[in-house]
Amino acid sequence: MTKNIAIIRGDGIGPEIIAEAIAVLDKVAEKFGHTFNYKEAPMGGEAIDKFDDPLPQSSLDTCLASDSVLLSAVGGPKWDSVAKEKRPERGLLRLRAGMGLYANVRPATLFDELRDASPLKPSIVDKGIDFVVVRELIGGAYFGEHKTEQRDGEDYASDIMGYSEHEIERIAHVAFQTAQKRRKAVCSVDKANVLDSSKLWRRVVTKVAESYPDVILSHMYVDNCAMQLVRNPAQFDVIVTENLFGDILSDEASMITGSIGMIPSSSLGKGSCGLYEPIHGSAPDIAGTNAANPIGMILSAAMMLRYSFDMPEEADSIEKAVDAVLKAGYRTGDTMSAGKTQLGCHETGKAICDNI
Ligand code: NAD
Predict the structure, then answer these.
(1) I want to staple 136 with a disulfide (CB 3.0 to 4.6 A). Which of 21, 74, 171, 253 is the partner?
(2) How far is the CA of 280 from the centre of ligand 1 (A)?
(3) Ligand 1 centre and the CA of 204: distance in Å?
């Protein structure tokens, strides 16, 4: 099979980790007889430097014309002082909106080999951590009206958190369909005791649930969910929530699994073309030192093969290779513990390639 992949190399550790993901994809292509063509689509800081725009139209066009998009991470202190509309993360928000990617799916799985890396007590970790956060990605407060104005002689700022029924419906379907392939339980997280947008959220999710009688639906307030994630994460299978709550909860979820460097994510819309990226940022503090963990990036490539290219065997081969490398005791600095062997970013990528 031939697939065209748009590559966003990104900033900070981005170019280092995406190089390892491409090496892994090349190895998979060789083993399974596929051809992966890569086309660069500069975005974020790199694009600001080259085009004075965090997402030039040519990059968006490249992404839209591709079979899928692989992104590392964008941003860094170099671009902290540029105007709001030109900041690197604006490029990312525009890319998500431009590709119509409304569903962000983030697995939170604790690798057996990394149990020690979880900050939770063994008595909690031993019950297992294996759930998925399905986050609405192009609605809510991040995409509502933002305003700063003068009121009564002082600055006043507001951000509108709004949702329409169809926006809630389509993300609810993603959650229920994800649950059908797992343990068949969806927990919908909102703040329906206070927010109108959450009341609508709860009503629509409950209605969509009628089409999935095999899936159990529960509801939880977001403050309680933040607490339950550290008290008893084993209770969750699929969490579905709106954009802002999902941003916060999915970072919390990643932390309890050990390292932020291990977790992949996918963002999907209507078609099969998705955006695949690790959940972490560009880690400017370790950029250029070969210290980054490339596993979240490499597992994002595996998710791309599974969900956008329908290549489950190929995805399995990457996930098994990651497992084998961890089992052999190899770690990057962020997951290092006594008795293990520390490898750099490139050496970790190479070890994974060697295991495919
Ligand atoms: P970060 O995720 O980049 O880093 C947080 C901490 O985790 C740092 O100590 C970093 O060294 C470490 N870390 C992150 N990824 C790692 C990896 N793969 N291996 C080892 N250690 C890793 O978050 P931040 O410091 O808040 O943000 C840095 C920049 O990234 C900012 O400009 C921010 O806007 C941007 N950012 C981009 C995205 C994205 O592109 N999707 C997401 C979050 C943050």
Answers:
(1) 171
(2) 5
(3) 34
